[in-house]
Automatic annotation (TrEMBL):
Main localisation: membrane
Keywords associated with the record: Acyltransferase, Antibiotic resistance, Cell membrane, Lipid metabolism, Membrane, Transferase, Transmembrane, Transmembrane helix
The protein's role, per its UniProt record: Catalyzes the transfer of a lysyl group from L-lysyl-tRNA(Lys) to membrane-bound phosphatidylglycerol (PG), which produces lysylphosphatidylglycerol (LPG), a major component of the bacterial membrane with a positive net charge. LPG synthesis contributes to bacterial virulence as it is involved in the resistance mechanism against cationic antimicrobial peptides (CAMP) produces by the host's immune system (defensins, cathelicidins) and by the competing microorganisms.
Gene it is expressed from: mprF
Subcellular location(s) per record: Cell membrane
Lineage of producing organism: Bacteria, Bacillati, Bacillota, Bacilli, Bacillales
Protein name: Phosphatidylglycerol lysyltransferase
Length: 883
């Protein structure tokens, strides 16, 4: 019994430790602690690194050695595709060998550089394989199978460190904590094998097809072994060229220990921990810090950055959902024809158009182009190239080319966002700048590598030219400040790198060599600040002076006469009357047969209620409106959508969030008789005894009446600001459009009023709109007003009376509800302090209504919390017209 109790206590401790680890702050502390420890251990070596000497070492690498190192690095990245061929075979994916290789390259290079604990690779593989028709049910086990096996090869090689086959004793003896790290990595392999062969793994991952075969386990470890082996070979190849023929076993052993530290730090690519441990190991062998740092820089560049740039190119050409379709006059959906480059790329398979992620990759290629131009301008050129360029061109031409390269670099960085968002003018300007940057890269110092890269990016943009269709996109203050901060930090980095690198480089030139263009480092600050300012000035002018800068074509229509004519022959709803407030724009789709009434908030067009028009045209009409909005980078959202239209929104790929329920009172059964309505009868009797009278004033109303109503409204507001969009506000011209229910006291003074909103459905439904009362009215005033309103509507032949919405009512009650809806449920139950959600529901229950749900329908690309804040801002916005 005592032993069982101890076991349970240990289990509780384990659960406690796991719960603590799940806390995000605790998880972040672990890698930070590892990197801090490594930095503390290696701070002496870091102080010995001189940037100028490191750049000098990099500049002296022969071209043949560069080609060899690059080839080995690219081969090492290609070897990582063994993972994807393994899951392709094990899970029987029907994907071609060449497609598998492309998918592997994209996923692995993004995962190497970005990381996020492997989430980058998992997300990209999921997108790519789904695009090729792999069902999610088969893909999920494959990704779960793949994730834990990627470090088994490093675990196997760690046993070589421990047994002495791959000696790194000096490094681990000097930094003893590394021994525990290597032991932990080595023990991962037997743990992995046990899990792979377990019955639970066979049930959940192998989908009931038995335990993982020993051959598959061996192949998994073998694929990981090849990855780490070739990565180590890449490290040794670079080290042998820069360090003068270092031994393979020695460098490979240092690489493995550094890789373990990098994995333990959980930083993307092991950056920081890997580099410092490798630096410690190389300096321990007797190499100077500058040579060791040069090895690490080239390793990072060739094994991580260059393959990732190739992965960006592949992603830009590969990743795609079905492209944006065009609609002709008849409504037939047409796809753009393929150009010759798209056909070549798609051979032998079928080309798929670029998706958002593909354009994100294009934007990052343009961003990288700008950074490469700045990096090239900030670091000294090769002397023999500078001499050759000087012989062909004059020194002033070289200096002008240098400054123009910096300016183009900043412009490309700023325009990269427009490329990601598919803006046509951004594509045109970026193409011109890429060609200009390539020319100036030649003329400033014969930097043909940068020029070739810029021309390659320009070619990829040209291949994708038909996909840049947007006229403009919304520019928010937040994004402007963010890009201003980013470019300012880049300018600061350019200044620090340029001034320090040139100064350090100058100190180590051969005697007698003092070229003038290397002595201009004092101008780096001027070049950085001037280019930053000019680039922002040019981009601002392009934004301000461009034609059709705003979505005027969409937002301009507020034709009330056309609205009246349209409603004469089209069924409306409870929200239709608020279209006459004048704060909403109209979009007429399907040749004017379908109406969308909307207001804009930031980059969203929020449609009030469902579209109006024939149901058969709705799907095509929504597609038409979304395309028109997308040209300006705007998204279409439907606020207070009804259940009747949910199938239409579902076909459009919309997601849903329940906003609440609307109270509809069936007037045929409304009566004050019965025990249930005794409270309402008591209220009515009391007000009648006190001399209150009810009347309905038909439009048009007298000016005197409207003045008195405005006084009641302002007393009710008590200094608060009117809300808008989905809520009516007091506006004299709007009040003249419908009847107004009045409640007068015994002395004839108006105590309360409610404006009535027709629903434009042939007299079937009528709704309440504006409700206001004086401060000194007794309890039950609105009850008395509503009872008489319902009786009046019944006498007028209406079938339904709409009492309005009860926000968050019946939201998130089920256990399977969305997380956001469960949070909304808590607000509904506990939020009475701020807004009486539950009290409003109880109040409307007095009149025995039928409840009908209302939804928010929004595109999957939008983030619900941000959308919610935008909607709150929209409803709380001060009305544009108030009388």
């Amino acid at each position: 019994m005592h032993s069982i109790k101890q076991t349970l206590e240990r289990f509780r401790i384990v659960r406690l430790l796991l719960s603590i680890y799940r806390i995000r702050a605790v998880r972040m502390l672990f890698p930070v602690a590892i990197i801090a420890l490594v930095y503390w251990e290696g701070q002496h070596e870091l102080k010995q690194v001189h940037l100028g000497l490191t750049i000098r070492e990099l500049r002296h690498v022969p071209a043949s050695a560069v080609m060899e190192m690059m080839g080995v690095a690219l081969l090492s990245v290609a070897v990582m595709s063994a993972y994807d061929y393994l899951i392709r075979q094990h899970f029987r994916f029907r994907i071609g060998a060449w497609s598998t290789f492309r998918y592997a390259w994209i996923a692995n290079t993004f995962n190497n550089l970005i990381g996020f604990a492997g989430l980058a690779g998992i997300g990209l593989r999921s997108l790519l394989y789904k695009k090729s028709g792999v069902p999610a049910a088969a893909l999920a086990p494959a990704l779960v199978f793949l994730s834990p096996l990627m470090i088994t090869g490093l675990s196997l090689l760690s046993w070589g460190n421990l047994t002495g086959l791959l000696p790194a004793h000096g490094l681990m003896r000097e930094h003893k904590w590394l021994i525990f790290a290597v032991w932990g990595m080595a023990l991962y392999l037997p743990f992995f094998v046990i899990i792979q062969r377990s019955s639970l793994f066979a049930k959940w991952i192998n989908r009931g097809q038995g335990r993982t075969p020993w051959f598959t386990v061996a192949a998994s470890v073998g694929a990981s072994f090849l990855e780490w082996l070739f990565a180590g070979i890449t490290f040794w190849t670079i080290g042998s060229h820069l360090l003068g023929g270092a031994e393979f076993v020695t460098l490979f052993s240092i690489y493995l220990v550094a890789a373990v530290a990098g994995i333990l730090s959980m930083a993307p690519g092991g950056i920081g921990a890997f580099d410092l441990i490798a630096l410690l190991g190389l300096t321990q062998l007797g190499h100077n810090s500058d040579q060791a740092m040069a090895v690490l820089v080239i390793y990072r560049l060739f094994y991580y950055v260059v393959p990732w740039l190739i992965g960006l190119v592949l992603a830009a050409l590969e990743i795609g959902l079905q492209g944006r379709k065009n609609t002709d006059q008849s409504g037939e959906m047409l796809e753009p024809s393929l150009n010759i480059w798209q056909k070549i790329w798609g051979w032998p398979g079928q080309y798929t158009f670029l998706s958002d992620l593909g354009f994100w990759a294009l934007g990052k290629l343009v961003l990288a182009s700008g950074l490469i131009l700045l990096l090239s301008a900030a670091t000294p050129g090769l002397l023999y190239r500078l001499r050759m360029t000087e012989e062909l061109l004059s020194l002033p031409v070289m200096q002008i080319s240098h400054h123009l390269s910096v300016l183009i670099g900043f412009l490309l960085i700023l325009l990269s966002r427009g490329i990601s968002l598919r803006v046509r003018r951004a594509y045109l300007w970026t193409s011109v700048l890429l060609f200009g940057g390539a020319i100036f890269a030649f003329t400033k110092g014969f930097d043909y590598e940068e020029a070739v890269f810029l021309l390659l990016v320009a070619l990829i943009l040209w291949i994708s030219r038909s996909r840049f269709y947007r006229i403009s996109v919304p520019v928010s203050k937040q994004s402007t400040l963010w890009w201003l901060l980013l470019t300012s930090l880049i300018a600061l980095g350019y200044y620090l790198l340029g001034s320090y690198a040139h100064r350090g480089f100058m100190k180590h030139l051969p005697p007698g060599i003092r070229p003038e263009w290397l002595q201009q480092h004092s101008n780096v600050a001027v070049a950085a600040a001037g280019s930053l300012a000019v680039s922002w000035l040019i981009v601002t002018m392009l934004a301000v002076l461009r034609p059709q800068r705003k979505a005027e074509e969409i937002l301009a229509d507020k034709d009330m006469e056309r609205l009246e004519h349209f409603l004469a022959g089209t069924k409306g709803n409870a929200l239709t009357h608020m279209l006459f407030l004048g704060d909403k724009s109209f979009y007429w789709a399907q040749k004017g047969k379908v109406l969308f009434a909307f207001a804009r908030t930031r980059d969203k067009l929020v449609v009030l209620g469902d579209p109006l028009g024939p149901r058969a045209l709705m799907n095509e009409a929504i597609s038409e409106f979304r395309r028109a909005a997308d040209i300006y980078g705007l998204s279409v959202v439907f606020y207070q959508a009804t259940p009747e239209f949910l199938p239409v929104y579902h076909e459009q790929g919309y997601h849903f969030f329940k906003l609440g329920e609307e109270a509809l009172v069936p007037l045929a059964g409304f009566t004050l008789s019965g025990k249930k309505n005794s409270d309402l009868r008591s209220v009515c009797n009391r007000f009648e005894r006190e001399g209150y009278t009810f009347e309905v004033s038909e439009a048009p109303h007298s000016g005197t009446l409207l003045q008195e109503l405005q006084a009641v409204s302002e007393e009710w507001l008590d200094g608060r600001t009117e809300k808008g969009y989905s809520l009516g506000w007091f506006k004299a011209s709007y009040m003249q459009l419908a009847p107004i229910a009045l409640l007068r006291g015994a002395e004839g003074r108006i105590a309360a009023f409610a404006s009535i909103a027709p629903c434009y459905d042939s007299g079937t439904t009528i709704s309440i709109d504006l409700m206001r009362h004086r401060k000194d009215t007794p309890n039950g005033t609105m009850d008395y007003l509503f009872v008489h309103l319902l009786e009046w509507a019944k006498s007028q032949g209406y079938a339904w009376f709409n009492l309005g919405n009860a926000p968050l009512s019946s939201v998130g009650q089920n256990s399977g509800a969305l997380r956001e809806e469960k949070v909304a449920r808590l607000v509904f139950v506990r939020g009475g302090h701020w807004y009486g959600f539950a009290g409003l529901r109880r109040y409307k229950e007095k009149f025995n209504p039928q409840w009908e749900p209302r939804y928010l329908a929004y595109p999957a690309s939008l983030i619900l919390p941000i959308l919610t804040m935008d909607l709150v801002r929209l409803v709380s916005r001060h009305p544009q017209e108030k009388e």
